[in-house]
């Protein structure tokens, strides 16, 4: 990443928070606990509330691979001004993500938030659009020149 920063971004989709979870505060406790553990003031966790036009769009109306029935997208960004500080922030991000995952709608998410995506996460993110994306990329973008996100080139995967 530019500007002398070292950054790892992880994210996933979360379902709408049911009333019983809101009352208990399980997710809130996970968030508060992990926010307090970060070391770098540059690390951050934006939480995007989904709904409205996003949720109203038909799943097959566009190329976006994410789910439309989620309540939130949590983006955990571990950022450090130094290489030495990055290891601790990366571990913080991974532990945070693992703690939220049991409460998530799945391990998919917004493709640009998947810094360490494996085949299963890429497949969960694109869902049933993955095969179509592979066909399009194989035909029109075999070298993935139209993207700077390595995980958005699933046609190269086995």
Keywords:
alpha+beta; 158 residues; 6 helices; Vanillyl-alcohol Oxidase, Chain A, domain 3; disordered C terminus; 3-stranded antiparallel beta sheet; 3 strands
Helix proportion range:
25-40%
Assigned CATH architecture:
3-Layer(aba) Sandwich
Number of domains: 1
Extract low-pLDDT stretches: 150-158
Which band does the percent of strand residues land in? 5-15%
Helix-and-strand structural type: alpha+beta
Q: How much is the radius of gyration in Å?
A: 17 Å
Q: Kindly report the spatial arrangement of strands forming the biggest sheet.
A: 1-3-2
- N-to-C span: 28 Å
Shape: globular
Quick structural gist:
The protein has six helices and three strands, in the order E-H-H-E-H-E-H-H-H.
Mind explaining what this structure looks like?
The model is unreliable at 150-158 (pLDDT under 50). The longest helix has 18 residues, at 83-100. The protein contains 6 helices and 3 strands, in the order βααβαβααα. The chain has helices at residues 19-24, 26-35, 52-56, 83-100, 119-126, 130-140; strands at 6-14, 47-49, 72-80. Strands 1-3-2 form a 3-stranded antiparallel sheet. The chain has 158 residues and is an alpha+beta fold. It has a single domain (6-121), classed as Vanillyl-alcohol Oxidase, Chain A, domain 3.
Tell me the layout of helices and strands:
Elements: E1 6-14, H1 19-24, H2 26-35, E2 47-49, H3 52-56, E3 72-80, H4 83-100, H5 119-126, H6 130-140
Antiparallel strand pairs: 1-3, 2-3
